[in-house]
Design goal:
Elements (H helix, E strand, L loop, with lengths): L3 H10 L9 E6 L32 E6 L5 E5 L4 E5 L6 E5 L39 E6 L5 E5 L4 E7 L7 E7 L3 E6 L5 E5 L4 E6 L5 E8 L4 E3 L5 E3 L14 E2 L8 E6 L5 E5 L4 E7 L6 E7 L11 E2 L11 E3 L5 E5 L4 E5 L4 E6 L28 E6 L5 E5 L4 E6 L9 E5 L6 E5 L63 E2 L4 E2 L2 E2 L4 E2 L5
Antiparallel strand pairs: 1-28, 2-3, 3-4, 4-5, 6-7, 7-8, 8-9, 10-11, 11-12, 12-13, 14-15, 16-20, 17-18, 18-19, 19-20, 21-25, 22-23, 23-24, 24-25, 26-27, 27-28, 29-30, 31-34, 32-33
Amino acid sequence: MYSIIELNMINKNLDGGNPSEFYITTVAGVGMGYQVHFPSYIWNSFSGDGGPGIRAKLHGPTGVAVDASRNVFFVDTYNQRVRKLDTSTGIIKTVAGSGRFGSWNLPNGSVYYSGMMEIGYEGDGGLSTIAKMYDPDAIAIDALGNIFISDQANTRIRILKPNNDINKTYNISTLIGIQVNGIAVDASRNLYIATNDAYIVKIILNSDFTVNRVIEIAGKLWVDISDDGRMMPSGYDPSPPYNVLNNNRAKNVYLGTPRSIVVDPSGNVFFSDSYLHVIRKLTLNPDGTTYRITTIAGTGVHGYSGDNGPGINAHLNSPSGLALDPAGNLYICDTGNHRIRILLSTGIIKTVAGNGLKDMYNNGVLPLNDGGPAINAGLSHPTGIALDALGNIFFADRHNQRIRMLYPPPLPENRRAVISLEATTGRVALRPAPRPAPRPAPRPAPRPAPRPAPRPAPRPAPRPAPRPAPRPAPQPAPQPAPQPAPQPAPQPADQLTINSRITGGKKRKTRKLRKSRR
């Protein structure tokens, strides 16, 4: 199983190594192939609840967060919902928002109207799935599973509290009235927010989630809190010059458009400034109440450059989402460059995902490169980003209408993990491969007692094949030798003599017969 420590080892190997040290896959969203923001399209851009996330329709996803169980929560902005992807099953569902943000039943052609239009804000005190939200954006989760959402167009931070029921539902309420681009929460449940009005504040909450104090930590801000809980800036003066200052008291520094915000365990605050194209760090001073600000990546001029060099010399383009790992490496959504970059704890910056091409709108080809090196993948305006406890990185590929995941390449075989995305169920599984059992030291085998050699059974002698008898050579028949004619011997009286007749001058032989006695 991959651990954060193993991921950090990989990150260290990125120093001078191959920037394609991550692989990429899609975990939610089928994509749309084009981008439409007109509200009439919203009704056709939502589907998939209760089924595989990779078959669901998303529309403009932005903020991403991961809970302690590695479930991925993301804001489906133009669908006016917050959705959850269960990474153990791949199933997606809505946890907040009904999808209604107002009435836009417009016919074709020119439309003339006057009067008031309903803006979708309702639902506090009830189930979160029937509440109205209007273009939610940022999201953060604390250690207890409470979810903080920027209901941006409704100018509120709303909180989802788990009901701990079998259906895992949430109740929704408004925490404070403010228009927020980014939200972070620390281990003490303090909120850090980046606002549209170019300041960073820290909100200290009571145990019942009411606001205790609001502390300005960066920007120029005077704050009033109205009776209905809205925090209203007053006397804000973003006077020029708009230069990027370093190592100054944070309250005296102009901020452009702070976007995403994260906090490390030491209380240092990192935020992206998309207007000034930089990443900045707020370091708590020894007095414990004030911060100093430094720029850690970006020059203040948009562009794309600087890989394998110091982050402060690199060019970024409208950076947004940020995520920190325990080793202090900072992951950056370089939104305008369509890339994910990493600022190592050493200060070196590298690209880890995205080839900078987004030709799906021009040629109709989307080079997702799922299952391959992330450096070759086509991204389009990545925004929110978050890490799970295993070192996998989830981010919103916003204009590609997808949630995507970066995962480390295979480690050596004895530490290898297997990641699979099953197309039929959409399940994303990170399973440890079986580790081979340790091999015991070889022991000499015991020598068996000598046994008498077995006697072989007698085998019958092989029978020779029958051989044909030799044929004797033909011999000429013997010719009888000529014999003289026998002379008749004198016969006794008791014998009968048969004389041969003489015919033709020849004499016949005569035979003497002896009378037999009976």
